[in-house]
Design brief:
The protein has about 325 residues and is mainly beta. It is about 5% helix and about 40% strand. Mean pLDDT is about 85; it is low at about 1-20 and about 25-55.
Length: about 325
């Protein structure tokens, strides 16, 4: 994901190419109704479903190296913003590899990160594995707070793309966490009311995903909303069956009544989860209940912790 242990190689570093701020910078880009800068030679990223975020212009897209103008800190004055990336070649003997880095978040002529460091974002404890070299974004998570945010996309690894957000305050930037996915994904929505939604990797039972809601917390950071029930995305190729007796709860409460679903090979479906401890189960025979988990795959099965793969055959675990 975006966190990563710093590279261990002792290498000679050469800048092989640079997209610097000003290379294709210009005056402030007008935006279309879909929130795309009109001069950026891109098509609308309005989602396949109706895009609330696009309709209220909470996302504007700019080319890397292009200068944007936006009132980031809510002081009534437009700030000039530009994001730059470098491709750096690391060499050690016959071995070499290229690394792409964000090396500039320029606001009003001052770079907010340190490109001389191996990780320019070290003070935020984040590492970009595969940065988007084409675009950055100016967003407006809450249209009522008068502030806007800078958003950068990291494609990461293993299909784990995230959009990271920075707020400009008191002459410096503050990292306010991330949302899974990227702004023109079908499920990515930013309605401008202090919330967002996107398709996320769920953290219980198996490898799967579902659309979840985010919100700004009391510290102004982006967090997954508490107390939400997420409907996992359907996968017709994953058809788990119950192979061991399973004790389930009648409600999302460990003090609620329990019952046992027989491990007789019935098909299991999981229509809801709170992505914290609880997963709802339904069987083809019509039995229902709630499974309680401690951690990713540890199921409380009648007071005994068991791996989900011990109870269900056919769950998905991606590498």
């Amino acid at each position: 994901m975006i966190k990563k242990i710093l590279l261990l190689f002792s290498a000679i570093i050469m800048v092989s190419s640079l997209i610097a701020c000003g290379d294709n910078a210009g005056t402030e880009s007008d935006t279309t109704i879909a929130g795309i800068p009109s001069g950026s030679e891109t098509t609308s990223f309005e989602s396949e479903s109706e895009s609330t975020a696009a309709e209220v212009l909470t996302i504007e897209r700019y080319k890397i190296g292009e200068t944007a103008k936006a009132d980031l800190d809510g002081d009534g004055n437009a700030d000039e913003v530009c994001v730059g990336v470098e491709t750096v070649t690391h060499s050690e003997g016959e071995f070499s590899y290229d690394e792409i880095r964000f090396t500039k978040i320029d606001i009003n002529g001052k770079n907010m990160i340190d490109p001389s460091k191996e990780n320019p974002f070290d003070r935020f404890d984040i590492w970009y594995e595969n940065p988007d070299t084409e675009f950055y974004y100016i967003t407006d998570i809450d249209i009522n707070d008068g502030k806007k945010e800078i958003a950068l996309v990291d494609y990461g690894s293993n299909d784990w793309t995230v959009t990271t957000f920075f707020r400009y305050e008191n002459g410096d930037i503050k990292y306010i966490k991330f949302i899974e996915g990227m702004p023109y994904d079908s499920y990515f929505e930013l309605p401008g009311d202090g919330t967002a939604s996107s398709m996320i990797h769920l953290s219980l039972l198996q490898t799967w995903r579902g659309v979840a809601k985010y919100e700004l917390d009391a510290n102004g950071e982006i967090v997954l909303s508490k107390g939400q029930l997420i409907e996992p995305a359907k996968n017709d190729y994953v058809k788990p069956v119950i192979v061991k007796d399973l004790t389930v709860f009648a409600e999302m409460d460990k003090a609620s009544e329990t019952s046992v679903i027989s491990g007789d090979g019935d098909f299991a479906y999981f229509p809801l989860t709170d992505n914290e401890h609880w997963v709802k189960i339904e069987t083809a025979a019509g039995k229902t209940g709630w499974i309680y988990l401690e951690g990713w795959t540890q199921i409380d099965n009648g007071g005994k912790n068991m791996e989900s793969s011990e109870i269900f055959d056919g769950l998905l675990f991606a590498g």
